[in-house]
């Protein structure tokens, strides 16, 4: 079976470094908040060119802690795209805030700026743009709207770490460092993934950074003295050691994904029933997922055909948040979700990872072409 990711192949290429890093932590019994956690935080902050990186247990915790740091009140509204993974909105509901679900751009899959603007009310306190599948949302426009209405911006950067945002003044910033707070996940399949769970929070705001650190550590800055109600969310030292090794290769990993995506697009562009990924002019794309739009209601048939031919293909995401049972009573839907609804019926992601080779891609491409040749109507 051709899998969506090849974690084993990636591990084998850096096995000696990874094993040494793990063994060092074990030999030093440096398991909780060890030196590797501090080293990784410093190195990731340097890579991102951001002042503060606060590691935590996972990407969902990162989003929750970020929201907890903003002094929000029950019933405050947080704008979030309806087309995203559940965690983005789940933490909003968990904190008794109101997820306001807005539409996305049909071509880039990221939050639609006009839908966002139309969703703002007196109760709106923050925006959570998601850099879906590896490409940045339109952060300059989002920040302009946020500044106009005095709103916080929390970037969900779980799928786009390493992507570059190109500002109108020709400067570049890393995804996750443009808003007030950025959050990411180190789930194993991410572009920068550990061998378990992990996450991190980024900010250039010294005051927010201190509060975030405290909330992630039971609300304390000094042991046994608790200023805030917090949580217990920390990055395991072994996972930090693994991530610190892999961080050195992140740009190479992202470039490999980019080249694989380019090869897919060049070979699938002439199939009328397929829309290949559309690249924004203001962002690079690190292709956490390579996601097609399948036209003429053939998506489910194509997925089944590929699966039957030992090729993985996944749907991210089959149901918009507004139709999820958990959100029906706690969320608000702003305006039309036309694009979201259409995308949930038509998107299909193909295998993409750092070890993907052209022979494997050709196998996938030929099967896709075979399917559409046999299903021309």
Describe the structure.
- This protein is α/β, with parallel strands linked by helices and 377 residues long.
- The protein folds into two domains: 7-102 and 109-247, Type I PLP-dependent aspartate aminotransferase-like (Major domain) (Aspartate Aminotransferase, domain 2, 3-Layer(aba) Sandwich); 250-374, Alpha-Beta Complex (Aspartate Aminotransferase, domain 1), CATH 3.90.1150.
- The protein is 39% helix and 15% strand.
- The protein contains 13 helices and 15 strands.
- The chain has helices at 7-13, 15-27, 35-48, 59-68, 86-94, 113-119, 139-149, 206-216, 237-247, 250-268, 299-308, 338-346, 358-374; strands at 52-56, 77-81, 98-102, 124-127, 152-156, 164-166, 172-174, 181-185, 199-203, 220-222, 225-226, 274-275, 290-294, 332-333, 347-350.
- An eight-stranded mixed β-sheet has the order 1-9-8-5-4-2-3-14, sandwiched between helices.
- A hairpin with a 5-residue loop joins strand 6 and strand 7.
- Helix 4 packs parallel to helix 5 and helix 10 (250-268) runs parallel beside helix 13.
- It is globular and about 70 Å long.
- The two termini are 29 Å apart.
- The model has no long low-confidence stretch (mean pLDDT 97).
Question: How would the blueprint of this fold be written?
Answer:
Layout: H1 7-13, H2 15-27, H3 35-48, E1 52-56, H4 59-68, E2 77-81, H5 86-94, E3 98-102, H6 113-119, E4 124-127, H7 139-149, E5 152-156, E6 164-166, E7 172-174, E8 181-185, E9 199-203, H8 206-216, E10 220-222, E11 225-226, H9 237-247, H10 250-268, E12 274-275, E13 290-294, H11 299-308, E14 332-333, H12 338-346, E15 347-350, H13 358-374
Parallel strand pairs: 2-3, 2-4, 3-14, 4-5, 5-8
Antiparallel strand pairs: 1-9, 6-7, 8-9, 10-11, 12-13, 13-15
Helix pairs in contact: 2-9, 3-9, 4-5, 10-13
């Amino acid at each position: 079976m051709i899998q969506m990711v090849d974690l084993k192949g990636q591990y084998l290429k850096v096995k000696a470094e990874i094993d040494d890093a793990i063994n060092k932590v074990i030999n030093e019994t440096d398991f909780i908040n060890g030196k590797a956690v501090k080293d990784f935080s410093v190195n990731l902050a340097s890579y991102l060119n951001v002042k503060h990186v606060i590691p935590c247990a996972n990407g969902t915790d990162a989003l929750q802690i970020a929201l907890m740091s903003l002094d929000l009140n029950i019933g405050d509204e947080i704008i979030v795209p309806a087309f995203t993974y559940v965690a983005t909105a789940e933490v909003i509901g968990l904190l008794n805030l109101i997820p306001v679900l807005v539409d996305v751009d049909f071509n880039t899959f990221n939050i639609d700026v006009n839908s966002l603007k139309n969703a703002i009310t007196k109760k709106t306190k923050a925006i959570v743009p998601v850099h879906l599948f590896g490409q940045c949302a339109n952060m300059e426009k989002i920040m302009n709207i946020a500044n106009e209405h005095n709103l916080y911006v929390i970037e969900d950067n779980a799928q786009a770490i390493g992507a570059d945002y190109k500002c109108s003044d020709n400067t570049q910033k890393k995804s996750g460092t443009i808003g007030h707070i950025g959050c990411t996940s180190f789930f194993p399949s991410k572009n920068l993934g550990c061998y378990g769970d992990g996450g991190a929070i980024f900010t250039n705001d010294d005051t927010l950074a201190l509060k975030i650190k405290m909330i992630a550590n039971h609300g304390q800055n000094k042991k046994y003295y608790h200023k805030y109600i917090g949580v217990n969310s920390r990055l395991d030292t072994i996972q930090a050691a693994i991530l610190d090794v892999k961080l050195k290769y992140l740009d190479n990993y992202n470039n490999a994904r980019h080249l694989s995506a380019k090869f897919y697009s060049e070979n699938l562009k002439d199939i009328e029933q397929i829309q290949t990924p559309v690249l924004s002019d203001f962002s690079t794309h690190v292709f956490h997922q390579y996601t097609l739009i399948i036209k003429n209601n053939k998506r489910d048939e194509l997925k089944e055909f590929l699966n039957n031919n030992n090729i993985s293909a996944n749907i991210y995401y089959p149901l918009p948040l507004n139709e999820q049972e958990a959100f029906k009573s706690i969320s608000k839907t702003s305006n039309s979700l036309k694009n979201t609804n259409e995308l949930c019926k038509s998107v299909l992601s193909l295998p993409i990872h750092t070890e993907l080779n052209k022979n494997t891609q050709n196998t996938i491409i030929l099967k896709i072409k075979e399917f559409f040749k046999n299903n021309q109507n």
